[in-house]
Each structure stands twice: as structure tokens, then as C-alpha cells.
Amino acid sequence: MSGPMDGVRIVEMAVVLTGPLAVGMLVDQGADAIKIEPLDGGDSGRYVGVAAGGMSALFQVCNRGKRSIAVDCQTSEGRDLVLELIESADVFVQNMRPGVAERLGLGYEAMAVRNPELIYVSLSGFGPDGPYAHRRVYDSVIQAQSGMVANQTGLNDAAPKFLRQAAADKVSAYTACQAITAALYARSQGAGGQHITMAMLDACAAFMFVDSAGHEVALDNQQGHLPQSFSANQRAIACRDGHVVVSAVTDDEFHSMAEAFGVDSSDPLIATTAGRFENAEVSSQVFRAVHAAAAAMGLAEVVGALESRQVPFGVVADIEDVADDAQIRHNELFFEFEHPQMGRVRQHRPAARFGGTPAELRELSAPTLGQHTDEILTDLGNGDQIPHLRASNIIA
């Protein structure tokens, strides 16, 4: 056994990020995934962002360990191949625009007839119906519509600020991945197959409402002076040669932080958390003094002072330095290998470590387009049809 999802088979018809990442995390945990791609170029995620040897870093991370079959699903023979594939599958994931799968003859009803135990997952931007369902969607669209952009935008910003990553796609992928495992658990308890629909908008709005919409959750609150999120006022502290972030939440942490920077916090008005809320200006004076003191200190000195006093802090790390971080290296999160197409690749292992069912990547590389077409069709018992299907441009 290799991972807790060993024995689970997934068929994926998804592109770029949300669907491929959701399935990719399950592959990292031991699932077998067959990725169905269109003949003309395959998943467009192959070409998004930084690439080497014609394959993007994004595609590698989201699709490592999957098997690729290139099929023209707009033909009846291509559709029939997909329906054959799902007969032995546990999960089918698609992120086509609402209605497209049904028009292809690959909707939930058609597949459930062939495999009643199938977990069928439909991912979309806004949902299967409603006033926005017809719209094309990318990550930035959902960042804007879900409140992520407004949450990132400060009072002094001249224009809305986007997260500099595909945050909406990734939040949606993690949400979908958890939903799939929940449905598989329910099936193991006798619930049978089912259709999961998930809108990126819903996943991201729910994500925001956990801690970024306090006034919209507690509708009868009397604290209009507070921001929507308790994290809204977080600022990095600048040292001579870097930045740190300090999260001094308890009374001990607050006063220890001040002590680390040589700042007096003995005023009884701010001795407690409640006092600091009630006397915000006095608290602000302490923080201003901390920032002023830090500007004259080196990063190593600040780290030592905070660590020795058990104050929660983190050094603001450039992304190119993360893999060499001392704790990351100790955790053995990253490893390097030689990819047959991309050359040298550094990537992360599955983040969660399972003591009883350890997950090991069976295949480190993402597949080339159609790399496993012949293998998959032969396993289906259709090996003798390969020459005809290829000559008819049904497969590649």
C-alpha cells in the first residue's frame, strides 16, 4: 500500500488548476488518476507560467503521477471510451462550463447508469445555474467576486489589490478534495454514488467568512469600530536587514515583545488585552516605539530577542529562500529529481504524513500529452482498436 487513497481510481477531465490540483492531492496520497485531455494541445495548464522543456511548473505540480490519455470526446467513439473508463472508476472530476458535459453525453445521469457507485464531481466558477452560471471564469474573477480582493485592499491603496497567486483556484481545489474524500467515506458506509457540485464562488466566499467578515456573521454586534478581520491590521516590522512579523496575542506575549525591543509597556492602562482594546492610542504608542527600535537592530538580533522570550514571530522570507529554510530542510519537505522533459525539478512531498499508511509518490513526473493512451486502452481491452482510433483522430 502507498498512501491512504491507495486503490481509489479517478478519471479527470479538468484543466489548469482547480480540478487538476484537487485530483493531484489525492494522487499524492495514493490514488490512481487517468487524465483525459483534448488532442489539440491537451490541458492548457501545460503552458501557463514558468516552464522548462515545454512543460510548466504549474502543470508538473498539479499532475505528477497521473496517466494521460488524449481523446476527442466530441466524437461518439471518444465519448464511449470515456464511459468505458468510468465503469471501473471511483471518482470522475470535470470542470467544464455548466451544460457542456451533458451535451457531450458525459453528464452525471449518463455516467450513473454505467456506474451507480461513481462519485461525480462538477466544478464551476459560479455554479450549475443562476444569473452568472453562463460566464467564463478564471481565478481573478472569483478573487474579485468573493471579497478576496477587497480584503487585500488597504485604506491607502489607490486601486484594488489581488493576491499574487491563484488563491481562488487553490482554495477551491482544497475544498473539492475534501468533498471527494467525504463522499468516498459516505459510500463506504453504504450511501452509494452521488453527484457533487461545487462553485468556486461558494468555496471562496465561505473561506472568507471564516475570519474576514466578522460584521457580516455577527449581525447584531455592537463593535462597529473593529475591522471585519482581526488580522486586518497586521504589519511587518522592519529591521536593518529584513522584516519580521510578530503575533503578540496574550498579555505575556505583548509585554515580552515590548521588552525584546527595549520598549516600556508598564502603563497599567494596557496591562491586559481588554485594556489594550479600550486604550488603543496607548497601545499604538508601544507599537510605534517597537517599530522605531527595530529599525536600528539587525535581523539576527531581533530573532534572538524574540525567540528567547517565547514571542510568536516569523521572518518574512522571499519565496526563493523558502526551500532552504532551516525548519523546511529539517522537515524534508522538498526534494529534487531529474524530469525527463523539464530537466532538474524541485517539488514538495505530500504535506501530511500518515503514520499507518505512508504516502509515497509512485511517479514523480507529470505525463506528456497522451503518454499513456495505448497503455490505458490496452488495459480496457481495446488494444486491437488503437490503430483505427488513431487513424480516425479519435486518440493521440
Low-pLDDT residue spans: none
Could you state the oligomeric state of the chains shown? single chain
Mean pLDDT: 94
Distance between the termini: 32 Å
Largest sheet: 6 strands, parallel
Describe the structure.
- The protein has 396 residues and is an alpha/beta fold.
- Helices cover 39% and strands 15% of the residues.
- A six-stranded parallel β-sheet has the order 5-2-1-6-7-8, sandwiched between helices. The chain has a three-stranded antiparallel β-sheet with strand order 9-10-11.
- Strand 1, helix 1 and strand 2 form a beta-alpha-beta unit.
- It starts with 8 loop residues before the first strand and ends in a 5-residue tail after the last helix.
- The model has no long low-confidence stretch (mean pLDDT 94).
The gist of it:
The chain is an alpha/beta fold and about 400 residues long. The protein has helices at about 20-30, 55-65, 75-85, 100-105, 110-115, 140-145, 150, 165-190, 200-210, 215, 250-260, 275-280, 280-295, 300-310, 320, 325-330, 375-380, 385-390; strands at about 10-15, 30-35, 50, 55, 65-70, 90-95, 120-125, 195-200, 235-240, 240-245, 315, 335-340, 345-350.
